Amino acid sequence: MEEKFLITKQIGEREILFDAKNMLLFDTTLGFDEEQYLNIIQSLNFPEENKKDSASKIVLNISNACNYKCVYCYANHGNYGKENAFMDIDTLNKIVDDLLNKGIKNIGTIELFGGEATLNPKLLDIVEIIDESFNVNQFLLTTNGSGSMDLVKKLSNYPMRYYISLDGPKEVNDMLRGNGSYDAAMRFISWLNDFKSDYSVSVTYTKVHEDLGIDYQDLYEFAKNNNFSIEINTVISNNKNIEINRRITKKQLISEIDRTLDILANGEKNINLDPYVIRILKGLFLSKRSQFFCDDLQTNITIHYDYDGSLYNCFKLWSDHRFKLENISSEHEVLNLYNQKENFNQCRTCWARYLCELCIADTFLGEENFPFLDDCCVKKERFEITLEKILVRLENGDIDRIKSNFINYIV
To answer: Which residues, in sequence order, are bridge partners of residue 292?
Structure first.
């Protein structure tokens, strides 16, 4: 029994113990039977690691070019500081052979990325070749929404999901992404609706939003009015004109947690669900544990191919040849060192170790800081607050509805 991963919360008249390593809840109000606990632990079956013939996700940079010049773009407006180029069929075939030679037959998600992926004139051929070569559960296309209706129609024949980059109402979106970009994206979304395609909108929240008086609630209303799901990400930038300086208060944090739990309890369309709520619910309902800060950084889980077939741990590192990998089984020693939680004292003893996630690429590149460099880890505090709010819903009888709607959302 590893006590460092146990946390107890008093909820009403009940004492609830959360085992954050094995993702289990116990009502210990009348005592705790350690023998029974150990028997339960021994019977657990956590999801197996990827089978040798399977890959969770393959990310392909099929277009090292973009037709927009978004002011916050980390990728040098789509080409990552390299030449403007598209992934060609010869390169794709070499990638397919690379994966097949490794024994991969099943792929959870093929992510088609850029630049702007829809600019590649061979996009449909790429999808067709991959679909014929592997058993693919889902294609995920990240786009600014400048593609054509004909493209949407043809892609609707595949299990395609879209991430549409749209930063809110027209005024702020066109300031950040260029004149006409809002109308193009909304037109693209209307085509997706016509063909019943699955999609969500990705918003990058910046100081420009703040200066225009647009807050998160305004973006939630924008999404509801247009009947789509959104995910809001705070911009990561050293540009003082767009960088957010405001820090969320505890009151605002609790409000976000309650809003997410209300959405899940009521079965509403998901609108920027709080990531800490999602992380704990994945543990409780799906037995999901994060072994690393970023599981996707491990090449046995996610593989990232640049437009020329070069292999990397992460798409954010495509601009730096130092991170190029030799082959599909190789690792980058320094990144791997940063990604191991046991290499940091505070993480090694933290109860939330198997819940915590962090973008190592942003941290390593100096865009973000480790959250535990001070005496008190900000992530640990947030997990404690979030867990308590979830347990209150358990006491109130909301948890079954939350579980059902959450699983539907995830799956």
So the answer is: 340
Per-residue model confidence as pLDDT tens digits over 82-133: 899 999 999 999 999 999 999 999 999 999 999 999 999 999 999 999 999 9
Model confidence pLDDT, tens digit, residues 249-274: 889 999 999 999 999 999 888 889 99
Q: Is residue 361 scored above 70 in pLDDT?
A: yes
Contact 348/341 with Cβ under 8 angstroms?
yes
Reported for 264-270, long-range contacts at CB under 8 A and 24+ positions apart, including other chains, are 264/401, 264/402, 264/405, 264/406, 264/409, 265/393, 265/398, 265/401, 265/402, 265/405, 266/401, 267/401, 267/405, 269/223, 269/224, 269/227, 269/228, 269/229, 270/200, 270/229, 270/409
pLDDT digits (tens, 9 = 90+) for 59-72: 999 999 999 999 98
